[in-house]
Amino acid sequence: MQSLKVTITLGLFFLFSLVSLALFFNLDGEADFSSLASRDASGKKGKSTVREFEKSEVISKQDKVENEPSALFNDPAIKQAWGLKKSDAARAWKVTHGSKDVLVAVIDTGIDINHEDLKANLWTNPGETGLDKKGQDKATNGIDDDRNGYVDDVHGWNFVSSTGDLTDNHGHGTHIAGIIGAQAGNQKGISGISPEVSLMIIKYYDPKVTNTDNLKNTINSINYAIKMGAQIINYSGGGTDYSQEEFDAVKKAEKNGILFVAAAGNERSNSDQFHYYPADYKLSNIISVTALDPSKEILSTSNFGIETVDIAAPGQNIISTLPGNSYGFMTGTSQATAFVTGAAVLVKANKTDFKFDDIKKYILSTGDASPTLAQKTRTSRSLNLFKALTVLDQGMSANGVMVTGPVHEVFTTTKGDNKELNSNPFGKSLMDAVQKSNTNTKRLGDKKENQIQ
Ligand SMILES: [Ca+2]
Ligand SMILES: [Ca+2]
Ligand SMILES: [Ca+2]
Predict the structure, then answer these.
(1) How far is the CA of 164 from the centre of ligand 2 (A)?
(2) Long-range contacts: 141-148, Cβ < 8 Å, 24+?
(3) Residue ranges per structural domain of the chain
(4) What are the pLDDT digits (tens) for 94-103?
(5) Taking the complete model, does pTM exceed 0.90, yes or no?
(6) Which fold has domain 52-440?
(7) How far is the CA of 54 from the centre of ligand 3 (A)?
(8) DSSP run (H or E) holding 174
(9) Is 275 designated active site?
(10) Alpha helices, H only, 204-260
(11) Angstrom distance (rounded) from CA 372 to CA 298
(12) Is 117 a catalytic residue?
């Protein structure tokens, strides 16, 4: 009898240990260090505010990508990009390819400024280029020529080292920049969502530099983007602690008319209950983005919330640029966020007089609605680039069918209850037509989508 008790007790203990281990390793073998990063040693949420780039590692890397000459553009890897297909990029690109006049600040881990598929789309600070009075190159003369407080900030600034050196020691920032704005039609690599754009690179995090204040770097990065005239900010990071200083910086961006596209986070949690910042600040200029898999379901690792998470976009096994002229796949709400930023560039390029609230409305009140997304996002929608550019303007469906009756824009850009789910702003005939057009389109990557190389 005694030995039976001991056996049961040991068995239960063993089971408990297994469950604990499984929870820590997220049941899929990946340790959840990102959640730990925002908690103190006791396991409770600490008072110290922490910002990390999202847990998002390179899945695979390659120097060359498969040649697919039949693609819309001649970029070899475009057919591997299932996210472009599912967000209807090919039809969107018939409307616009973006514009160099749209300035996006990518606040991340830096970038490979010499990458073959990115260098043409880097923003260049006009005040730090050309020759100074002594005939020296302003970019490298060691002088703050435009007197903005930063010496030789040619393509942006590195707040980790306080220099203009933007070297990406992780790969995350280079990957995000490529999703937004890799060059199209250059016979190299991939195409970004908005292949014409100006990318301002602001580095707030470096895995090789320990004990840096990522939150402070984030706030400084936002303020730099504001100062230097960015129209859109992409921030693929965050933390679970509210920061008044960070809130104030994003609010200042709002006052300056800047759209702030933020990752919902990879914490596997309901953001309505467990907030993730800066995505969850109640500010009108923020779009909070969660991630989809190729079947358009939200990833199990992604945060969700019908009050706090605005929209879903492709985020699993996304191919993009990596340092050293290479390419690779990454997964997370970071990648999804970059898709929405690219969409914002397209909308802004197509409607140059648009303010951030117009851009936000065009992205959030179009898209593809689905019942599963209704339980996990505020809009119940996933990103559709073509619809974001066309539906509200034309009052017609993606395949040209006129809407019966007027288009009512019932969607509001202020966060609140989920009223828009109760009524269909476009009418049933439109939604049916759009649905039909979605199932009929056979475009990019029909056979090889989501194939990990
Ligand atoms: Ca300067
Ligand atoms: Ca200079
Ligand atoms: Ca390319």
Answers:
(1) 10
(2) 148/227, 148/228
(3) 52-440
(4) 999 999 999 9
(5) no
(6) Rossmann fold (3.40.50)
(7) 25
(8) helix 172-181
(9) no
(10) 214-227, 244-255
(11) 8
(12) no
